Amino acid sequence: MGTVISTESSIKENELLVRLSGKEPISDNDPFWNKLFSFNFTIDETKRVNQKQFYDDLKELFEFFLFNAPTSGNFASLIKVFLRRSTELDISIKCDNKIFIWQSTNSLIILRYLFTFFLQRLSQSEFAHQFESKPNDTGSEDGSEIQEEDDEEFSSVAEKFLANLINIVTTLPVNPSTVSLHAEAVRCILVLLSPQMFEEFVSENVFFLKSLMKMTNKANNLTKTLLTNIIEQKEILPTEIKEEQAESLVLSLASSLWSSFARTVSLETPSEESEDELGVDVYPKQTLSLLSSNLLLTLVCYNRFDGDVNAFRLAIEKCQNSQEVSSLVSPDISFRIDFSDLYSHFCDSATEPISMLLLYVLIHRNSGFKNFVLARINLESLVLPIVKALNEGISAQSFKSSCRHTYLSMIVLLILSEDSFFCKIVHETNIDWYQDKMLQEISLGGLIILVCVKTVHLNTVKMRDRYLHQNCLAALANMSSGFRDLSTFVCQKIIGLLETMTRRHSKLIQMMRDNAEDCEDLEDSQGFDLHQDISALEEGIRTILEMINACLTNNLRHNPHLIYAILYNRQLFEQFHNHPMFQDLVWNIYLVINHFANLVQEAKVESVDAVHNTIAKAALQWPTDRLKRFPDLKFIPMKAADDLRFFHRFNSFAAFLVGISLNSLLIFFIIRSRVEEVKQYGKILLQIAVIDSAYSFITTAVQP
Predict the structure, then answer these.
(1) How many Å apart are CA 316 and CA 222, to the nearest integer?
(2) Which of 211, 341, 394, 570 has the most CB atoms around it within 10 Å of its CB?
(3) What gap in Å lies between CA 336 and CA 322, rounded to an integer?
(4) Are strands 240-242 and 308-309 parallel, antiparallel or unpaired?
(5) Is 405 in contact with 392 (CB distance < 8 Å)?
(6) How far is 471 from 377, CA to CA, in rounded Å?
(7) Is 412 left (phi over 0), alpha (psi -120 to 50) or beta?
């Protein structure tokens, strides 16, 4: 049963595809469609070489179809056949009609490939017009009146098609027979939202995006369904479906939407270039969970759309925990979902960029979920993977290749550090992981400090990324009043960072003086960069001094190792006395130095352990009111009204910039140029995509 395509080259001679792409009109009730949808495709879809050959073979058929479709009407007929089939899917699933479900899935695969090809070559109005039937189409007359009544609800067939895809996702159950159907429906929606990928400038003027944003009555249900899929549908999608009959039906999904975009976009570019760019020979596996994450992120990251509130973003902001019992009924609730399952999902997948991105959206926009996370007794299960991702990102040989985790991890930690309870409890849980050094005992809070300090240190001497620098220091500053029982190693690293920044500051100041003495005229950009670096270092040094002050004034009795580290490096603080930016911050530090130095000298102890014991005992008797108190350090995100529009562009390009050659990256660099102008906190997210996620996040975007 069905056509068997056993090699990539045989697709050129496939009679059904040749007829579909030809000039002959095919009625929507022609038996041809059942034959077309019953294809068997048995190539290894995970290998890049096979995929490229497959798309090379498809190109000619695509071109013929694009040329002939306006006169033959076969594209519109294909859409009409799918729409008719979609109304029968519910009963087919109840009757366990696997053949009908399988054929419907195949129809979406064909449509997806056609969409990716058409969207690059047609304007949006031309593409939407392809969905409309020709006046002289000879289709089935049965049920035409019913169809006309149904069409009154929609302004176009294209809009009706999109609504049917959403109905598949939201109304049909997910089971082994339908999971591929759900996956294809999600992929098709993602493709239809992608036309801006192929335009010179990014805009909201996307036909299918506008249509989807108008379906506000579907927003809550679709958002809940996607979140449910994210939590539950983590199985790798089947690459083969077999019907247990004499004539076995085998569907080996031809490729992923990931590879679909990769090969489709690369049809007109040198194969060597794209291969070097991607650097992979095998495509990653996909899950419905991952696909749903991509679609959800694409939908929620608009702040407003056409002047109206984004209903999908509002849905995710207003969702509440289904396990929370409350006698009050709030009309603002969009839907309820189990936050425990959602939290477990993030604990298991926080190392993945898409999951980290979704976590950011939820804790940034949904206060109920953020409070739920902060109240977990196993908070380390979520925080530790985030800290690991940050550590691995800044430890990588190429920072740009891993910055997706570096930025996202840092931002999530910064948001969590706004909560004073979080800053306290992280020091109550011991952790046995730190890859740079085997530590006998360190708290989760100590580990966060270590990795943040390491990040700032490497950034100071190597990367010099101002955004990363500021946000790492902001997270440390937020946590500083809660520093408690810091280990010797952690205290050494804090003081070591201060020493590194001080040395570099002195070096740059001397460089500026030498240039002035030699009357050297620096280029404007060089002089500006030098002043920027000096300013950033001064801000960093002041922040560290403020952190030390906050720790001493709030928890001096519980940090004898920090006092020891300050005493051991007392000469480091001498140069801050006469600096106008720092002199107000060293008064407390020198009060501590003088007091404990005298006690150690009077005790006449020599060994390190004896000095530690002396300091620890004296710290318990320290009067808490002797130190000058400064305002609490609290850095919060700067919430610009346009942040999520930028963020949507990040997600949109990350979802659709698949395998694109350097010649196809015009939009990519346009967006990057916008990033350089952005100074607000939330817009850092765009840097992640621009620098790196055009591969890593993209590869997980959409694949069968």
Answers:
(1) 10
(2) 394
(3) 5
(4) unpaired
(5) yes
(6) 26
(7) alpha
By the 8 A CB rule, do 312 and 219 touch?
Answer: yes
Largest CA distance in the chain: 104
Q: Worst-scoring range by mean pLDDT, 228-242, 418-432, 511-525, 600-614? A: 511-525
Contact 305, 213 (CB under 8 A): yes
Task: Give the span between the Cα atoms of 429 and 435, in whole angstroms.
Answer: 18
pLDDT at site 501: 92
Secondary structure in 3-state letters for 16-59: HHHHHCCCCCCCCCCCHHHHHCCCEECCCCCEHHHHHHHHHHHH
For 430, residues 6+ apart whose C-beta sits below 8 A from its C-beta are 441, 442, 443, 444
Q: Determine the Cα–Cα distance for residues 697 and 298; give it in Å rounded to an integer.
A: 13
Tens digit of pLDDT for each residue in 71-105? 999 999 999 999 999 999 999 999 999 999 999 99
Q: Is the distance from CB of 513 to CB of 583 less than 8 angstroms?
A: no
Q: Domain locations in the chain?
A: 4-274
DSSP E strands: which ranges in 136-249?
Answer: 240-242
List pLDDT tens digits, range 253-311.
Answer: 223 333 333 333 333 433 443 444 444 566 667 789 989 998 998 888 777 777 788 89
What is the model's pLDDT at position 87?
93
Instruction: Identify the three-state secondary structure at position 324.
Output: coil
Token representation of residue 665: 């990256």
> Residue 238 is encoded by which pair of tokens?
């089947």
**Could you report how far apart the first and last alpha carbons of the chain are, in Å?**
23
Reported as a single tens digit per residue, the pLDDT across 307-342 is 788 899 999 999 999 988 765 666 788 999 999 999
CA–CA dist 160, 211 (Å, integer): 10
